[in-house]
Amino acid sequence: MIINNNSYKLLDIDKVLEDLNPITPFGIKLKSLMKPYSRSEEEALKEELDRIEKIKELVNTQRAIFVEIRTHMRGMKDIRKSVERAMEGGVLNSVEFFEIKNL
Fold first, then answer.
1. Number of Cα atoms under 13 Å in the Cβ half of residue 69
2. What are phi and psi of 45, to 5 degrees?
3. How many domains, in total, are found in the chain?
4. CB 84 within 8 Å of CB 94
5. Is residue 70, in this structure, part of any structural domain at all?
């Protein structure tokens, strides 16, 4: 479904997306692929909202653990190209090996 301009403005989608601040290269990529749910995906949307609510409760009750997780995630490198090259038989340099090992 392509959201129409009126709905886009009413929902203030630009503000919602602006407030999403992924901290890993993987989150940034997922954010760029985000799209609104269509009417036919109502059940999937409800499931996603349930998951978000559970995560929100965990963050509120286990804040220290999530701060530690966030700290580790901030240092995550995007090694997808190195892994792809290695899978295709390419030779990795020592920095790429180190980054893969650390991840």
1. 7
2. -65, -45
3. 1
4. no
5. yes
